[in-house]
Design goal:
- This protein is of the alpha+beta class and 544 residues long.
- The strands form 4 sheets. A 5-stranded antiparallel sheet has the order 4-3-7-6-5, sandwiched between helices. Strands 9-11-12-14-13 form a 5-stranded mixed sheet. Strands 1-2 form a two-stranded antiparallel ribbon.
- Helix 1 packs across helix 8 and helix 3 packs across helix 4.
- The longest helix has 52 residues.
- The chain is rod-shaped.
């Protein structure tokens, strides 16, 4: 079992590292580190500054040594001055201190050489003090990590990492010095080290008796020390970047692969709901994505369930008039008199009208749902929309109407909502038609719009009021259910499919609004009509 678990973990890690996102994370993180490391290795600006400082230092020391050698190491001979070689060597021996115990040869000061006029070496500080490069063997001693790093850096000390080319040779320095010129440059010494060199003429009166050359490899040694000191930080940064990249890959690529696998499984198995609670609990964008996907699949599943219920309700509602038609046709066939047959045919005609209205409303409900899902939202002036709808219901001159529709109050300005004008217009046409069907003969249906302030912010509130018998308190919410057709006594049965208010709530909810019903107080029995209230957030108004 443990072996199987380890194998699963390795496969999961391999899958994460093979992810495109994981590869991008690793590549760009280590690209930044590589740029940093290359910059540390080059240290071009630092090297240029150190080189200039070393040139100035060597020239200052060279001028002091040259002046001292002219006074003590040369002789005004007859007829020409000449160099006292033994005196020159003694001056250099006393002038330059020997290498300190444990010190590195050449690290405590520059190497000074004096050349005669014929190019022969008169004195060399490395020879005077027998400076030899030695690597002592550490017997019984364990070197520290820092020492190992420094030794490794020293082994690559003279790899030509920094862009560089020699600017002068020893022969060129000697030739210029013998011509009385002061020269400087960078070159390689006999050990292959990069050195900074300054050459000054050894002049007495006007005669050039020889040259003094000072060279130092301290610049490269300083750079090597700086590079060596950066190695632990580079190693640490590499480890941190690798671990952070791995964690990012695990925490990003892994959950995304699981989301993708879950979505594929959802498609292949025919499931309707996505459930990844361990990812949805994350407090980051991936958790939000997983939560949104779960909500999306839940919404789709709810819509599928609603469509299934709707199809069942449609089947049930269509079967009722069909059963009535079948019964009426059978009764008409067995009727004994024309009056009975006429009565049965009248029932058939009513049921056909009822069935036609039902099918028409079902088709309208499906069309409006599709339009609401596909349409683009924009600003709609609800005051202007309802004002125009109310005008469309006005009774033409010379004609009578069962109920009058009026727009109550002045048309408001700025009653803007976010939505689609077509579906919103269908909402209020359904409400007005419903109110007219319950209004008494000669009654009035009042439509009004206002911008009001609530605890959740500003809303646009539209109301449709009738003068009918009102709504039983227990049915104030039930009337918005599909195929609800219960009507008070005295109203015609079968004149409604029971879909009008259901369609209205569906559209209002899709636009982020709310719809409710209430009874209007007053009258003999405490009720003098019903009021349907629709509220939408005001466009641009902040919501709490």
């Amino acid at each position: 079992m443990a072996s199987a678990t380890d194998t699963t973990k390795r496969e999961g890690l391999r899958a994460v590292l093979s992810s495109r996102i994981a590869q991008i994370i690793f590549i760009w993180n280590f690209a930044g580190l590589a740029i940093l490391v290359i910059g540390v290795l080059l240290l071009t600006e630092m090297r240029a500054g150190l080189t200039d400082a070393q040139f100035r230092n060597l020239r200052t020391q060279g001028e002091l040594i040259t002046n001292l050698l002219i006074e003590t190491g040369t002789v005004q001979g007859d007829p020409y001055p000449y160099i006292n070689e033994s005196a020159v060597r003694e001056v250099l021996r006393r002038l330059l201190p020997p290498i300190a115990e444990g010190g590195r040869p050449g690290a405590g000061g520059p190497r000074v050489r004096v050349f005669a006029e014929d190019g022969r070496v008169i004195a060399d500080t490395d020879v005077i003090y027998d400076r030899l490069e030695e690597q002592p063997l550490a017997v019984g001693e364990e070197s520290t990590i820092g020492a190992r790093i420094e030794n490794a850096a020293r082994r690559v000390e003279y790899l030509r990492i920094t862009p560089w080319r020699p600017s002068i040779t020893t022969e060129e320095e000697l030739a210029r010095g013998l011509r009385g010129e002061i020269s400087r440059g960078e070159r390689l010494n006999e050990k292959g080290e990069r050195v900074v060199s300054v050459t000054l003429p050894l002049r007495r009166v006007q005669a050039v008796l020889g040259v003094v050359t000072l060279e130092s490899a301290d610049v490269e040694r300083i750079l090597v020390a700086e590079r060596a000191s950066m190695i632990p930080f580079v190693v640490g940064a590499t480890v941190v970047i690798f671990l952070s990249s791995l964690l990012l890959a695990l925490f990003i690529a892994g959950p995304l692969r699981r989301l993708s696998a879950a979505a594929d499984s959802l498609r292949l198995t025919g499931s309707t709901r996505l459930a990844l609670p361990e990812i949805s609990k994350r407090k980051d964008e991936i958790g939000a994505l997983s939560h949104s996907l779960e909500q999306m699949t839940d919404a789709l599943a709810d819509r599928i369930d609603a469509n299934e219920r709707f199809a069942a309700d449609v089947s049930h509602e269509i079967k009722n008039p069909l059963a009535s038609i079948r019964s009426a046709v059978a009764s008409a066939r067995s009727a004994q008199s024309p009056e009975q047959q006429s009565q049965m045919l009248s029932i058939v005609a009513q049921d056909v009208v009822r069935l036609d209205r039902l099918i028409t409303d079902i088709a309208r409900a499906s069309r409006i749902e599709a339009e609401t899902a596909r349409g683009d939202l924009g600003q709609v002036d609800l005051g202007t929309l309802l004002f125009e709808i109310a005008r469309a219901y006005e009774t033409p001159p010379g004609e009578t109407s069962h109920a009058h529709v009026v727009f109550k109050g002045a048309r408001p300005d700025g009653a803007l909502v976010i939505g689609q004008a077509g579906p919103l217009g269908q909402v209020f046409r359904n409400l007005i038609d419903n109110a007219r069907s319950f209004s008494p003969e000669g009654g009035t249906v009042a439509v009004s719009v206002a911008v009001v302030k609530t605890k959740d912010g500003q809303v646009v509130r539209a109301m449709v009021e009738d003068e009918g018998p009102g709504i039983p308190p227990e049915n104030l919410e039930t009337i918005f259910q599909r195929f609800y057709t219960q009507r008070p006594k005295g109203t015609a049965f079968g004149g409604s499919s029971g879909l009008g208010l259901s369609i209205a709530r569906q559209i209002v909810t899709a636009h982020g609004g709310a719809i409710r019903a209430e009874n209007i107080g007053g009258g003999v029995h405490g009720v003098r009509g019903a009021r349907l209230i629709v509220e939408f957030p005001l466009a641009g108004s902040p919501r709490h």
